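Design request, tokens follow.
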């Protein structure tokens, strides 16, 4: 069928969604703007109105992925955190939300972080990539303010928690957990992390604010 002229309600969003599906099924190298245009029913030149080339599409796809991930975590973090039980519930909810997001689109996740840490990474992408960590950091600060976890550098605590969850998601998506269900490992990891964050608090008199 010949290419159709450019006419689309939201071609940019259509291309991003199609590209996300494409890289999960066929990999990043196989991604083609021309093929995406055919699938969208527009001319092969139409995507250039939004993405000048494949790399621009990948950058936009990574940025969009980070924004969607942050929105997912933000929704999970709506649990009230004014009590220790609430803070723990919010931490568990964020943990599950992150791993579920990662397992649903592992190729996208790897690309997102790869592009974010590239030497020529766009500032918009870097800012979008920081959003999820900021949500985790906010939860740590709130939990510290009510004594749910011990004093300490909240940035470092949030980074350790985030790195642990990312590791679980990466290993699970690569089928590298030696048969251990990712859900079971996530529960155990969340419990270990939470107990570790409370260790100094439980030490009582030896605690140094």
């Amino acid at each position: 069928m010949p290419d159709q002229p450019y006419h689309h309600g939201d071609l940019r969003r259509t291309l991003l969604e199609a590209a996300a599906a494409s890289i999960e099924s066929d990999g990043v190298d196989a991604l083609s703007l021309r093929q995406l245009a055919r699938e969208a029913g527009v001319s092969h030149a139409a995507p250039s109105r939004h993405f000048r080339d494949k790399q621009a599409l990948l950058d936009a796809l990574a940025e969009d992925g980070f924004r969607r991930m942050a929105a997912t975590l933000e929704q999970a973090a709506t649990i009230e955190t004014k009590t220790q039980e609430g803070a723990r519930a919010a931490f568990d909810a964020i943990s599950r939300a992150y791993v579920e997001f990662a397992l649903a689109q592992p190729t996208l996740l790897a690309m997102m972080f790869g592009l974010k840490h590239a030497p020529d990474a766009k500032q918009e992408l870097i800012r979008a990539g920081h959003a999820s960590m900021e949500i985790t950091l906010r939860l740590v600060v709130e939990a510290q303010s009510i004594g749910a976890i011990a004093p300490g550098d909240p940035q470092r605590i949030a980074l350790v928690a985030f790195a642990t969850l990312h590791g679980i998601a990466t290993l699970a998506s690569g089928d590298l957990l030696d048969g251990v269900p990712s859900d079971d490992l996530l529960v155990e990891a969340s419990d270990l992390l939470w107990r570790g964050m409370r260790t100094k608090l439980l030490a009582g008199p030896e605690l140094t604010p």
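Comment from the thread starter after seeing the answer: thanks! The mean pLDDT is 89.
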